[in-house]
Amino acid sequence: MSDRDTGLSALEAIYSRRAVRSYKGPPLDRETVLALLDAAVQAPTAVHEEPWAFTVVQDRGMLRNLSDSAKSAFGEQMRNLPPGQRLRLQHRLDTPDFNIFYDAGTLVVIWAKPMGPFVAADCWLAAQNLMLAACAKGLGTCVIGFAVGALNTPEWKAHLGVPAEWTAIAPIIVGAPAGSTPPVPRKKPEIVSWR
Ligand SMILES: Cc1cc2nc3c(=O)[nH]c(=O)nc-3n(C[C@H](O)[C@H](O)[C@H](O)COP(=O)(O)O)c2cc1C
Question: Which of 88, 99, 143 for mutating ligand 1's site (highest number of atoms within 8 Å of CB)?
Answer without folding.
Answer: 143
